[in-house]
């Protein structure tokens, strides 16, 4: 038998093929890397301090804020408002001047990290959001205790306040708060039943945020599947749609909220809300069990298509020190209804 050596031409052809394969794999890897790597935040304008007052945190970041209502040095009730998903400190509070004066209410609103004029925090979590709230209150010297009020996705830091800084609270309110379907405290049949009521695109997006947060940017920007339901009637009541249509006239609020890019604001919000937490809500202790006066409230809209009434009932059954308010014939956007918002504030001030 004769063993023929490959010719130099064959070797050259083989080398070229190998180079083409390596180059192709390199291009694919580069494309994948570019697809999953979020872009850097859009820089804020140089005159950002003229757009909104900001305070500097100990880690060098800035938080933009807005103060409303009674002077803080004279206020009887000091309420920090946590805005919802794709919103900002510019959220419209449906409350009369007379009510503010009657209850001597001071409101502090701020852009959570990455929103509006607040600097982003690449590793933002429930815990970092909680300590941002405490540091903001200290920098603005609003006093040793304050009430926190969070709405929708913006309610998750309220759970953090109850866990990490309960000694700073005079009260807490969660309005149609998000449900992390992966809380281990929830019975599997209850959490899965609530999860499956969401539109399939929403289920997939929350699943990506929980299990593969490093893929969320790619998932939110890919063109094959919509990351959220495109049919508003799957997630909103007719009244919600009316309210949403009304607030599209204030589109500049959303544009301002997302001015640094959707990843550092909205997408980081989803990750922080639906990642694995260090605790479950049913592990929380009543911060007002002794002589410390205060109360915790959850507001549930019975027609809400996004938040499960049954899960909130379960949580409040496990935590009987939380007052559950069930609002009939109301949807997810009850915070924008004047009567409902005033009822929420009255309960917070009681």
TrEMBL record:
UniProt cross-references to Pfam families, sorted A to Z: Abhydrolase_1 (PF00561)
SUPFAM superfamilies referenced in this protein's UniProt entry, alphabetically: alpha/beta-Hydrolases
Superkingdom of the organism of origin: Eukaryota
InterPro entries: AB_hydrolase_1, AB_hydrolase_fold
Limits of the AB hydrolase-1 domain: 79-338
Protein's name in the database: AB hydrolase-1 domain-containing protein
Organism: Capsella rubella
């Amino acid at each position: 038998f004769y063993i023929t050596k490959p010719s130099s031409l064959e070797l050259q052809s083989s080398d070229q093929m190998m180079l083409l394969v390596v180059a192709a794999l390199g291009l694919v890897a580069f494309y994948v890397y570019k697809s999953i790597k979020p872009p850097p935040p859009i820089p804020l304008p140089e005159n950002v301090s003229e757009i909104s007052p900001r305070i500097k945190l100990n880690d060098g970041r800035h938080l933009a804020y807005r103060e409303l209502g009674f002077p803080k040095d004279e206020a009887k009730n000091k309420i920090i408002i946590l805005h919802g998903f794709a919103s900002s400190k510019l959220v419209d509070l449906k409350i009369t001047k007379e009510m503010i004066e009657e209850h001597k209410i001071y409101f502090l609103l701020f852009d959570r990290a990455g929103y509006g004029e607040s600097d982003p925090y690449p590793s933002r979590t429930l815990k970092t959001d909680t300590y941002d709230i405490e540091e903001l209150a200290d920098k603005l010297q609003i006093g040793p205790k304050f009430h926190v009020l969070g709405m929708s996705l913006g309610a998750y830091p309220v759970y953090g306040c109850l866990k990490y800084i309960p000694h700073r609270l005079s009260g807490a309110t969660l309005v149609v708060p998000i449900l992390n379907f992966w809380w281990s405290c929830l019975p599997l049949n209850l959490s899965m039943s609530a999860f499956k009521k969401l539109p399939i695109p929403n289920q997939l997006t929350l699943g990506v945020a929980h299990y593969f947060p490093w893929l969320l940017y790619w998932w939110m920007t890919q063109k094959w599947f919509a990351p959220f339901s495109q049919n508003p009637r799957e997630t909103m009541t007719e009244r919600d749609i009316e309210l949403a249509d009304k607030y599209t006239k204030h589109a500049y609020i959303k544009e301002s909220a997302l001015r640094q890019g959707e990843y550092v604001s909205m997408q980081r919000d989803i990750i922080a809300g639906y990642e694995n937490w260090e605790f479950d809500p049913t592990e929380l202790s009543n911060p007002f069990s002794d002589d410390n006066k205060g109360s915790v409230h959850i507001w549930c809209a019975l027609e809400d298509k996004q938040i499960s009434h049954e899960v909130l009932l379960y949580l409040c059954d496990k935590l009987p020190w939380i007052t559950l308010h069930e609002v009939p014939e109301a949807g997810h956007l009850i915070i924008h209804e004047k009567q409902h918002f005033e009822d929420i504030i009255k309960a917070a001030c009681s």
